[in-house]
Amino acid sequence: MASEAIRSVFDGTVGRRGSSAFGALADYWSLTKPEINLLIAITTAAAFCLGSRASLHFSGWLLLRTLVGTVLVASGAATLNQAVEWRSDSEMRRTARRPIAAGRIEPSQALVFGTLLSLVGGLYLGLAVRPAASVLALIALGGYLLLYTPLKRYTPMCTLAGAVLGAMPVLIGYVATSGKLDSQAWLSYAILFLWQFPHFMAIAWMYRGDYARAGYQVLPIGRTKVWFMGWQSILPALILVPLTVAPLVLQRGNPMLVAGTLLLSLGSSILPHDSR
After folding, report:
1. Could you count the other beta carbons within 10 Å of the beta carbon of residue 255?
2. pTM above 0.90, yes or no
3. Which of 11, 47, 87, 154 is the most buried (most CB within 10 A)?
């Protein structure tokens, strides 16, 4: 959910590919949304490093296995989502060129491909990393497909479900190395959870016409949409200010680091956002 702006840039280039074997491979590659997987991998790796610090042990091989399994599950989720929503994608300008929506890949083929990616990723995490990491990844997968995806058609509160699931890579990376979810893990999760609200609201407002055309209820109907977008953007951003600074203060962090974090947090909360 949190990276649809980046996704839209890539989607615009997909439709221009040919029907060659290379083009088919490129289409399957684009189904996995590699640009989003890069962000997921970075988030998972950062949480893994935090968990390694807490457990006083770092394993590069374990990190690699964690990233491979997590990205495989995320790729499966992205593919399955497009297999389910291809009709809606075809009605939106920014997604109409996606491989399934444009008719270059059959939904049934994408369904098999996405299922295989998800199963392989989940099994790999369970066997090569930790069962807890696999469970968390599969919960995120199921919630994304069975909760967030259908909710987009019924209520603007789908953002809440999307944020809960979108922050799961933090927990996966942390538990992969530490074997537990302590206060530091949940604090990191809360930061990413809250950040997604202003991020997605900006996207929802920018593409509100596209979403409405496809029948998505990501914003309320009528005048309340401005109020809704405002409080879902400002309130989480304001909560992020003490949430990001408090750990540094409690741990007696470097004053310059505390001041810099405070200024950046305040800037993200106060400065106007693009609301085209």
Report:
1. 10
2. no
3. 47
CB 144 within 8 A of CB 85: no
What does the pLDDT look like over 204-243, one tens digit per residue?
Answer: 888 888 888 888 888 888 778 888 888 888 898 888 888 8
Cα–Cα distance measured from residue 98 to residue 104, given in angstroms and rounded to the nearest whole number: 8
In a domain, 158, yes or no: yes
Spatial contact of 197 and 230, defined as CB atoms under 8 Å apart: no
Whole-Å CA distances, 57 to 99, 184, 251: 43, 16, 21
Range of the domain at 80: 4-270
What is the DSSP track for 211-270?
A: HHHTT--SS-SSTHHHHHHHHHHHHHHHHHHHHHHHHHHHTT--HHHHHHHHHHHHHHHH
Using DSSP's 3-state secondary structure scheme, residue 121 falls into helix
**254-263 residue pLDDT tens:** 566 566 666 6
142 in any annotated domain: yes
The rounded distance, in Å, linking the Cα atoms of 71 and 162 is 18
- Domain assignment present for residue 276? The answer is no
The structure tokens listed for 257 are: 């680091």
How many structural domains are present in the chain?
A: 1
Residue 216, phi-psi category: left (phi > 0), alpha (psi -120 to 50), beta (remainder): beta
Contact 141, 76 (CB under 8 A): yes
Here the CATH number for the domain that contains residue 256 is 1.10.357.140
Name the strand (E) or helix (H) holding 194: helix 183-206
Q: Round to whole Å and give the CA distance between 194 and 75.
A: 24
Q: How far is CA 73 from CA 116, 122, 124, in A?
A: 9, 6, 10
